[in-house]
Each structure stands twice: as structure tokens, then as C-alpha cells.
Design brief:
alpha/beta; glycosidase; EC 3.2.1.21; TIM Barrel; hydrolase; Fn3-like; Immunoglobulin-like; about 900 residues; Rossmann fold; 3 domains; six-stranded mixed β-sheet; binds 1-deoxynojirimycin; 29 strands
């Protein structure tokens, strides 16, 4: 049956993806977003086939790892190679994902573990600030250090692959449930943040898994399944044109590849009506071809929908390995063994899958840094089952290794440095000596169920310091804002009281009347779609504050004319009802700060840290101002929801700018307790040569070792204890047709295989490719920009100086971010801002030549303090 499913899926690819589809990417245009209600050119988009799957060649920093990986793979049997690629099934072993082991060579099974902000499902770990929060520090050092410390914690727990960082979702719509796991809807900011994070994780000796590739921009319908009232609905299709793909969503993935990410997770959704984990165009052509990705592509959990076609389309590892959780069946495992034995999948493709996995292993030094897995995702108990789903192998499963080191200090500082001061009418910083401090809001206090009291953090109770779902980690503790503020105030013997029930109107009024300063904590949460919180199925239903936050602010400001609002949120929230109320004397956005939440905000409130964070998204006056939204209802019938990205590259500030919409707080905005002056822009032209498209041919696909073609060599060992629902590479019959359980077995294989998919001969290299991330000349420096930034206030401060570029064409955004630097400047002193402008920074994607080019439109560089405060400018003479 499985085999039939595979065959059908291959056939489907073959029949629907060839032909007219092949021209979609090159010819698509960006329809005017204001016409988005009209029939879209992207409707029912298709994705062209691209085969064969590129084999790794050890380019860039991968040379050494490639040689080692080849040496290792050359020693493996067919079964052992298969074992490296296929997960053992959901809850089959200790980690959220585990592949098979190679006992003969003393190679233990690889362990894949969430999350992008710490080790999920483990004790004695740190809960770091979320990606979307640290992004607001605009600080490369903060990103690297967080990556390194997260990597170290994974490493000490025995994890081989950390399932993060995230740049998909990028954040197309602010309601997107998992935006906070990633960094920012701006591709350049995201690209730099993801690169630093990857370097940090991998320098710690753990493989980073950059996810989710690609266009997983909403939670609703991300997977096929039954929807109440609608029946079965296919996974959503994010429909996109070639230019938008390259100029926006692919950009940070290119940076991740250039930074050397060892693995990339393909996403649940479809792209142009082809599932991302078996989309040959996206994996073979774009990721492994054009971007030259050398590591391995891992499926999201159950995002694989067919066996042979996913392998030929470039998938290298299936997670968690079973067709659906705990079916005991796999599209790979035994079926992959058979597919190689019968020639449906060429040996070089399996060799390439195994080589890519092992190369990532060697690249980050796993051969030197690996320790035994010493925790268990499925239980915090000391003793339990090694194979939790099967309840087999009782013994020591959790050694409670404390891996936190001194990370709490950096977490506190990172969150404080990421806090954005949005408004300050001389209310901040506080001294702690205020006569009467009043704290309001459930968001200031503990969750009555404990910081980890809701499964996968699927609730919004107490102070919000991370979202919900697989992008979370257990809190070792959670310092609440109330506790930290109380510590502060009590040092001076002042008075502090709180009301943390948002609906205790009488008590709120009574306390607010007495306060000399009121600190109001409000929040907005979101998370992964498999959990629904307060009616929000992952994606937010709206952009308003949760728990009646607006009413709370209104009730406090009605009685206290010195009200400071602190927002803990997953992204933009609507503040228009109160932000310019004169009784709101200060506003801070603190994001999702992690375990040290209270200490971090107290550091800012009481002036130990002068705020320097800036918004990494736009805060608009209404949700419609963003021009994009979530699809909440499926179409009638069983068709996949069609999510047409008609707005093209115009998301977030680019959309606001294009449509002349005034934001409340723009992208890049943030205040300080001091002030800065910008002057003296200077542009130096560098001498870069002309751009040369990559040409030539690859080598032929290497074949590593021999394998027996005798099915008798692949049978289940007779002395083996079979673990229930576990996925093995072995066959249960010497008759391949019986072993595959496929009634159509034996039909000519050509019928099922897309043209060229098994061809291991040298292939043309891609013009826009040629190195990790793309053509190396894209990173040639064309200009270096400098400016003078003076701190003209009275205290030291840090300023995130931003460089934007106008590409000048009628279809280009007004400006796009291209560089930034966070400068630390003493009062009365100045510092020099410096940033390079690369060829890539000035290029557009040309769909006809399938390459980057610099248009002849006049280009301008701006240096400023936000996307709307473009204080200095200069023409760029190319
Ligand atoms: C599904 C999520 O989409 C992915 O991000 C996560 O890594 C896996 N589950 C494993 O938990």
C-alpha cells in the first residue's frame, strides 16, 4: 500500500508539475497589492520539476567535512545508510527526533531536539529570549552569544541537531502564530540574525537546523487534515512569484546557507501547490542548486507525503520517520532499502543523503563534542522507558544534567538590550524611591499553575515570556516583573502594591488613585497551530491586547496620571486606543524575554540599562494597515487553501511606505534615555569587478561503496527484539513486492520517475549559484558608507544606526534596510557608523535570466534612526 502511495505521488508530480508549470516562476509578476481582491495571477500556481537532485561537492567551508563524510559513508552497508536517513518513529526514543544507529561502527543514533530558544522538553535548561525579541537588540554579539549558549546546552544534553533558528515564517502577516520564533519580517535583519545564531550554535559543536523552508507563514491549514465542518482539507499552498521568493523570503535562507547551517527543515505547507518537502524546484533547484546548500534537508514532523518522490526531490532525512505518528510504517526505512535495491532511487542519491548528514556532523565537530543523550523528552522522571511509545527498555532515562552554566546573566542582559522604549514623557528611568509604586496586570505575576504548568506553554496565564508550541523550552524559574520591581522598591523602603486580576475594577481604581507611578503589564500571545489558546488556533485572531489589556490601561489611566505601560507580546499589537493618552507617560515593548523577564525589565525601568532596542516590525493603527492577513476558513471542497502572496515584496514597513499609511511606531523605531545627532555621511566607492554568472558543469555523482543486491541480506535479523511501531531498514520478505506491500510492484520503473531524476552525470551549474548562499560575487563590496553619530545627551547610551537603500525602480519599495550597527557612545562623544553595501544589496532578481542584476534606476543610500527617520542621504553612483 505504501509503495502504491509513493508511486501515485511520483506520478502526480510527473503529471501535474511538467509543462505549463515550468514557466510560472520566470513569468510571474507582482500584481498591485491594492488589487488583491481581483483574480490573482498566482491562483492555482504550479511548481516546475527540477531533477536530478544536486549532490554535494564539498564547496566553501565544507571541504574537510565532505572528505570525512565520504570516508565514513564508504564503509556503510545499504541498511546503515538508510538508517541515517530515517527516523525511528514518534516517541521511539529520547529526543523529539531520532534516526537509527550504526552499532557496528559504534555510531550512536543522532538526536534532533527543539527548540529555537533553548532545549525543549528537558529539565535544568535555560529559557532564552525568543528570536523575535533578541532581534530588537540589533546586536550581532547578542545573537552570537545566545546561539552559542543554546548550542552548549543542547550539546551537554547530548543533542546533535538543534531544531532552530527560524526564518520561516518571516512574518508576512503580524497575526502569524509562530512569527516570534523567527526574527523579523525584514529579510536583511533576519538574515544577519540567523547567520550569527547559526555560527553560535555550530561553534558550540551542535548542528543548527534552520527552518521552516519555506513560506510557512501561517498555522491554519499548514498540514492536510480534517477541519470541523469542512471535512478533509489539503495543506495550504503559499503561492508566490519568482521575484518575491528571491528578494524577500529566500534571502535569509541564503544567508543561513552562507553561514554554513548544517541542516534545513522543509515545511508543512505547499508552495505553488507542491508540498515543500517534495518540491523538487525548491529543494533541488533553489536550495541545493542555486544556493549551493551542502548540508541535509530534514522534513518537518510528518511533512513527508511520499517516499521515492521526496528522495528524488531532494529530501535527505525524514522526521520523525513514520508515515504518521506511530503507524509503525514509513515512506522510507524498508521502502528506501527496496527503492535502492530495485533501482527506483539511484545509489548515488542515497549516498548523497548519507554524506550530507555526516558532513554536517563533521562540519561542527560532533565527532569531538558528542556526549550520550542524558534526558528524555517524554518524561522528567529519572527512570522510565528508553522507547517511550512502545513502553520498552525500562531504565535510567534522565540524569538531570544542569547545563545552564552562567547563561542567566546573558539572558537578562540580552532581554534588557532588546527592550524598546516607545514613549517617554520624562517618566523613565525610575529611581525606586517613588513614594508609592503600583503594579497592575496578570502579566506582571506568576502563572498559578507554575511557569511550565501548561503543556508546551499552551496558555496565557501569568507573565508572558515565550509563546506556545514546539518553539519553547522549560523555564528553570521565571523571574516575574512584580518580584523584580518589589526587590527594587524595597531597597529604598518605599511602598509597592499590586492588583494582578485584570477584572478587579474596584481594587484597580482604589490602588491607581494612590499611586505615584503605575506600572501596567499587558500582553498578546500566539504559538504553534496544534494548540488553541482562547480561541486562537496558533495564529492570532486579532492584534488587540489579551486579557482585556486595553480596559486595564483605561482603568488605571483614569486614576493615575503617571502610568507606564509594558507590553509583552509576540509581535505588533494595537495601541491606538491609549498610546497618546497624556496619562500614559511611558511605553516599553519587552517582547518575550525568557526566564529573567522581571530582572531585564527592572534593569531598564530603573536605568541600569539605557534602552537601545528598536522595533523589528511596524506597529500600525489597525490590522488592515498591514495589507496581508491569515486565511482562517478553508475553501469549500477538499482543495488546498490558496494563499496568494499578491503583495509581492511589500510586507510590513514596505507596505506602509508604499501606501502612505502612517504607522504608530515604525519599523526601526526606539527611544533612549539620551539623544543622538546624525551628521557627515560619506560614501566611498570600492572597486569591484563586473558580475560573472557561474558557468560550467558539476562533477558526476559519486557512488560510495558497493552493496549487495541479494534481498536475503536485508532481512530482519532473527535474534532481534522488535520494538513496537519502531521504524527499521530491514525487509520482512525476500520477495521485494511482498516486502513493499505494493500490489503494483514490478511495473516499469521509468513510468514513475520524473525525467532526469536518476541521472548522475555532470550537470550544468546555475548562473546565480557557485558558492554557499549563491554566486560569491553577490557579496562583493561596492560602497562603504560612514556617518558620525553624536550622543548629545547627558548619559551614555547605545544607538542602533540603520542604513537603508532606495533601489529606485517603480516596483521597488521606497527604501529597504541593508545594514545597521549598534553603537555605544559616551555622553558628549561621537562614534563612526560604518556599513558596506554589497552587489546583492543593490540588485533585483531578473526572472528572465534567472540571476541578480543592478537596474539603471538611480539609487540612494540613507542613514537614519528608523525606517522613517532617514536623517542623512547620498546618491550612489554606480
Ligand atoms: C513541528 C514543528 O513545526 C517544528 O518546528 C518542530 O521542530 C517539530 N514539530 C518537532 O517538534
Amino acid at each position: 500500500m505504501l509503495w502504491l502511495a509513493q508511486a501515485a505521488a511520483i506520478l502526480a508530480i510527473h503529471l501535474t508539475k511538467v509543462g505549463a508549470a515550468a514557466t510560472l516562476y520566470p513569468n510571474a509578476t507582482n500584481p498591485n497589492p491594492s488589487n488583491s481582491t481581483n483574480a490573482s495571477e498566482l491562483n492555482d500556481a504550479t511548481s516546475p520539476p527540477y531533477y536530478p537532485s544536486p549532490w554535494m561537492d564539498g564547496s566553501g567551508q565544507w571541504a574537510d567535512a565532505y572528505t570525512k563524510a565520504q570516508d565514513f559513508v564508504r564503509q556503510l552497508t545499504l541498511l546503515e545508510k538508510v538508517n541515517l536517513t530515517t527516523g525511528v518513529g514518534w516517541e521511539g526514543e529520547a529526543c523529539v527526533g531520532n534516526v537509527g544507529s550504526i552499532p557496528r561502527l559504534g555510531f550512536r543514533a543522532l538526536c534532533m531536539q527543539d527548540s529555537p530558544l533553548g532545549v525543549r522538553f528537558a529539565d535544568y535548561v535555560s529559557a532564552f529570549p525568543a528570536g523575535g525579541t533578541v532581534a530588537a537588540s540589533w546586536d550581532r554579539g547578542v545573537w552570537y552569544q545566545r546561539g552559542y549558549q543554546m548550542g552548549m546546552e543542547h550539546r551537554m544534553k547530548g543533542v546533535d541537531v538543534q531544531l532552530g533558528p527560524v526564518v520561516g515564517p518571516l512574518g508576512r502577516s503580524p497575526e502569524g502564530g509562530r512569527n516570534w520564533e523567527g526574527f523579523s519580517p525584514d529579510p536583511v535583519l533576519s538574515g544577519i540574525a540567523v547567520s550569527e545564531t547559526i555560527r553560535g550554535i555550530q561553534d558550540a559543536g551542535v548542528i543548527a537546523c534552520t527552518k521552516h523552508y519555506i513560506l510557512n507563514e501561517q498555522e491554519h491549514f499548514r498540514q492536510p487534515g480534517d477541519v470541523a465542518g469542512y471535512g478533509f482539507v489539503d495543506g495550504i499552498s503559499s503561492n508566490i512569484d519568482d521575484k518575491t521568493l528571491h528578494e524577500l523570503y529566500l534571502w535569509p535562507f541564503a544567508d543561513a546557507v552562507r553561514a554554513g547551517t548544517g541542516s534545513i527543515m522543509c515545511s508543512y505547507n505547499q508552495v505553488n501547490n507542491s508540498y515543500a518537502c517534495q518540491n523538487s524546484y525548491l529543494i533541488n533547484y533553489i536550495l541545493k542548486g542555486e544556493l549551493g546548500f551542502q548540508g541535509f534537508v530534514m522534513s518537518d514532523w510528518s511533512a513527508q507525503h511520499a517516499g521515492v518522490s521526496s528522495s528524488l526531490a531532494g529530501l535527505d532525512m525524514t522526521m520523525p520517520g513514520d508515515t504518521a505518528f506511530d503507524t509503525g510504517l514509513s515512506f522510507w526505512g524498508a521502502n528506501l532499502t527496496i527503492a535502492v535495491l530495485n533501482g527506483t532511487i539511484p545509489e548515488w542519491r542515497l549516498d548523497d543523503m548519507a554524506t550530507r548528514i555526516m558532513a554536517a556532523y563533521y562540519l561542527v565537530g560532533r565527532d569531538r563534542t558528542q556526549v550520550p543523550v542524558n534526558f528524555n523528552s517524554w518524561s522528567l522522571d529519572t527512570y522510565g522507558y528508553e522507547h517511550p511509545y512502545a513502553s520498552m527498555g525500562y531504565g535510567l532515562i534522565n540524569q538531570h544534567v544542569d547545563v545552564r552554566a552562567e547563561h542567566g546573566t546573558a539572558i537578562r542582559s540580552a532581554a534588557a538590550r532588546s527592550t524598546v522604549l516607545l514613549k517617554n514623557n520624562n517618566a523613565l528611568p525610575l529611581s525606586g524611591k517613588e513614594k508609592f509604586t503600583a503594579v497592575f496586570g496578570e502579566d506582571a505575576d506568576n502563572n498559578a499553575y507554575g511557569p511550565n504548568g501548561c503543556s508546551d506553554h499552551g496558555c496565557d496565564d501569568g507573565t508572558l515570556a515565550q509563546g506556545w508550541g514546539s518553539g519553547t523550552a522549560s523555564f528553570p524559574y521565571l523571574v516575574t516583573p512584580l518580584a523584580a520591581i518589589q526587590n527594587e522598591v524595597l531597597q529604598y523602603g518605599s511602598i509597592i502594591q499590586s492588583v494582578t486580576n485584570n477584572w478587579a475594577y474596584t481594587q484597580i481604581e482604589a490602588l491607581a488613585k494612590q499611586a505615584s507611578v503605575a506600572l501596567v503589564f499587558v500582553n498578546a500571545d500566539s504559538g504553534e497551530g496544534y494548540i488553541t489558546v482562547d480561541g486562537n488556533e496558533g495564529d492570532r485572531n486579532n492584534l488587540t491586547l489579551w486579557k482585556d489589556g486595553d480596559a486595564l490601561i483605561k482603568n488605571v489611566t483614569g486614576y493615575c496620571n503617571n502610568t507606564v505601560v509594558v507590553i509583552h507580546s509576540v509581535g505588533p499589537v494595537l495601541v491606538d486606543a491609549w498610546y497618546n493618552n497624556p496619562n500614559v507617560t511611558a511605553i516599553l515593548w519587552a517582547g518575550l524575554p525568557g526566564e529573567q523577564s522581571g530582572n531585564s525589565i527592572a534593569d531598564v525601568l530603573y536605568g541600569r540599562v539605557n534602552p537601545g532596542g528598536k522595533l523589528t516590525f511596524t506597529m500600525g493603527a489597525s490590522r488592515t494597515d498591514y495589507g496581508t492577513d491569515i486565511i482562517y476558513k478553508p475553501p469549500n471542497g477538499h482543495a488546498a487553501p490558496q494563499d496568494n502572496f499578491d503583495e509581492g515584496v511589500f510586507i510590513d514597513y514596505r507596505y506602509f511606505d508604499k501606501n502612505n499609511i502612517d504607522p504608530i511606531y515604525e519599523f526601526g523605531f526606539g527611544l533612549s534615555y539620551t539623544t543622538f545627532a546624525y551628521s557627515n555621511i560619506n560614501v566611498i566607492k570600492a572597486s569591484a569587478g563586473a558580475y560573472t554568472p557561474t558557468t560550467g558543469m558539476t562533477l558526476e555523482a559519486p557512488v560510495l561503496g558497493n552493496y549487495s543486491t541479494n534481498p536475503a541480506d536485508y532481512q530482519f535479523p532473527s535474534n532481534m527484539t522488535y520494538v513496537t511501531a519502531y521504524i527499521y531498514p530491514y525487509l520482512n520478505s525476500t520477495d521485494l513486492s511482498k516486502a513493499s506491500e505494493d500490489s503494483s510492484y514490478g511495473l516499469p520503473t521509468e513510468k514513475y520517475i520524473p525525467a532526469g531524476a536518476t541521472d548522475g552525470s555532470p550537470q550544468p551549474r546555475i548562473a546565480a549559484g557557485g558558492g554557499p548562499g549563491g554566486n560569491p560575487e553577490l557579496w562583493d563590496v561596492l560602497f562603504t558608507v560612514t556617518a558620525t553619530i553624536a550622543n548629545n545627551g547627558t548619559i551614555p547610551g547605545e544607538e542602533v544606526v540603520q542604513m537603508y537603500v532606495s533601489l529606485g525602480g517603480p516596483d521597488d519599495p521606497k527604501v529597504v534596510l541593508r545594514g545597521f550597527e549598534r553603537l555605544s557612545i559616551q555622553a558628549g562623544s561621537s562614534a563612526t557608523f560604518t556599513a558596506d553595501i554589497t552587489r546583492r544589496d543593490l540588485s533585483n532578481w531578473d526572472t528572465a535570466t534567472q540571476n541578480w542584476f543592478i537596474s539603471s534606476y538611480p539609487k540612494t543610500v540613507y542613514v537614519g534612526s528608523s525606517s522613517r527617520k532617514l536623517l542623512l542621504s547620498s546618491a550612489l553612483n554606480i
